[in-house]
Amino acid sequence: MASVQGWKVLTGARWEPDELVQVEREREELELVEQADDFSALATLARARRIARENGLRYVYTGNVRDEEGSSTYCPGCGTLVIGRDGYELTRWHLTGNGHCESCGAAIAGVFDKRPGRWGSRRLPVRLADFAA
Ligand SMILES: [Zn+2]
Questions:
Q1: Which residue ranges make up each domain of the chain?
Q2: Separation of CA 2 and ligand 1 centre (Å)
Q3: How much distance in Å is there from the Cα of 8 to the middle of ligand 1?
Q4: How far is the CA of 78 from the centre of ligand 1 (A)?
Q5: With b meaning 16 or more CB within 10 Å and e meaning fewer, what string describes 19-31?
Q6: Burial class (CB within 10 angstroms; exposed 0-12, middle 13-18, buried 19+) of 49
Q7: CA 5, CA 103: separation in Å to the nearest integer?
Q8: Distance from the CA of 95 to the center of ligand 1, in angstroms?
Q9: 100 alpha carbon to ligand 1 midpoint, in Å?
Q10: pLDDT tens digits, one per residue of 25-75
Q11: 102 pLDDT exceeds 50?
């Protein structure tokens, strides 16, 4: 357990370092005990993300906010930004074809396509009736 300026992060055995964690409002599963007035403020979420990373979690993201730094993936080996995200847009892609960091070769947890997708923030209407059983 670590405490940083009024925050406590309880790092139990159920959190694996490579587990993907999204820090968002009212995320009780993260076991963050916070004393801030507004948990949804970007600065608060960014702080929670930093604390979780300092406590050994490698893939922690801020959720439900526009935060390129907190939405991007960084190499646990060398710290290089390997997948940049801004909203639904991919801004950078520095993975090899088999999901390793281009800079140091460390494996990045996850399953990745050989090349970045291009879906972005566009929308596609879906008729639910087309998928009814
Ligand atoms: Zn690396």
A1: 1-70, 72-133
A2: 26
A3: 29
A4: 4
A5: eebbbbeebeebe
A6: buried
A7: 34
A8: 9
A9: 8
A10: 544 444 444 445 555 578 878 888 888 888 888 998 887 778 899 999 999
A11: yes
